[in-house]
Amino acid sequence: MLQSTLKAAVSFEGIGVHSGNPCRITVCPRDENGVAFRTKKDSIEALYNMASETTMCTKLSGANGSSVSTIEHLSSAMYGLGITGAVVDVEGDEIPILDGSALPFVEAFLATGIEQLSHRRRVCKLMKPVKVQDGKKWASLTPADSFSINIKCDFTQKGLKTDPMRFDFSKDNFLKEIAPARTFGFFADMDFLRKNNLASGASLENTLVFDDKGNPLNENGLRLPNEPIRHKILDVIGDLSLIGGAIMARFDAFCPSHKLNNQIVFALFENKDNFEMID
Ligand SMILES: [Zn+2]
To answer: Which residues are 45's β-sheet partners?
Structure first.
């Protein structure tokens, strides 16, 4: 496995789903391993220990006080395509939500072109199982020869029925099965979110919204069956990409959240015997 970067810079413009503010990013080629978010004040490496907030989205913060929210869909798109090096220039404090999925990023990256570099890609091989728990929710990583994700969620209280899903990671599977899955939410939660300054930019343009019977309010319905669970997988990939290398492990979870996804990576790095980083 080799490192890859973009052939040229590509910009995205839109609004932040949580702030509701306009934002713009330019993703630039980088001839070294790792993704960095560059603000006016900071250069923030896309690593798990830079996460300062994991409520509803993953937010990274730099040493000089600037931050970038909602990095997970862009991170997922880059991991999905095997882009290991990039500098993301950020204007504003959030990554634009675009259509709520990873598809606009993926399509623009594929149109720009991806260049394979001569250096080897870092691989994180799990050596021992790790597990984290948050009430009924839990997530675990188990040693495996490839990266796979198994997720089960329970939204029955919100009126939504979802099926468990297993996803074997590959670029092609990611493009077809995961990248188009949009952010989702429940109409009944809107008031609470808005009062807490979350989802200020959410609309049917960028969020799949369900009523209390589990029916989508969006005009064209679902893009893919079981779209919410597919989006959960999209988020897991984006959040686990903060490990900083290709993942060789099986991820299982019940009701994963950005918080749990971040906690499992912390649990992984807690003990040197848990993993092997192969450069
Ligand atoms: Zn998401």
So the answer is: 36
**Final residue before a domain boundary, out of 120, 137, 161:** 120
88 lies in the same domain as 149: no
Task: Quote the ligand 1 centre to 169 CA distance (angstroms).
Answer: 18
Report the predicted TM-score, pTM, of the whole model to 2 decimal places: 0.97
- Crossing angle, helix 258-270 and helix 227-240, to 10 degrees? 40
Q: pLDDT at position 205, please?
A: 92
Q: Residue 92 maps to which CATH number? A: 3.30.230.20
What separation in Å is there between the alpha carbon of 118 and the centre of ligand 1? 32
User: Residue 197: is its pLDDT beyond 80?
Assistant: no
- pLDDT for residue 191: 82
**pLDDT given at position 7:** 98
249 Cα–ligand 1 center, Å: 21
Question: Into how many domains does the chain fold?
Answer: 2
Instruction: Judge if 190 and 269 occupy the same domain.
Output: yes
**Active site amino acids:** 258
**Residue-number span of the structural domain to which 56 is assigned:** 2-120
Helix (H), strand (E), coil (C) string for 29-67? ECCCCEEEEECCCCEEECCHHHEEECCCCCEEECCCCCE
Query: What confidence tens digit (pLDDT) does each residue in 206-263 have?
Result: 999 999 999 999 999 999 999 999 999 999 999 999 999 999 999 999 999 999 999 9
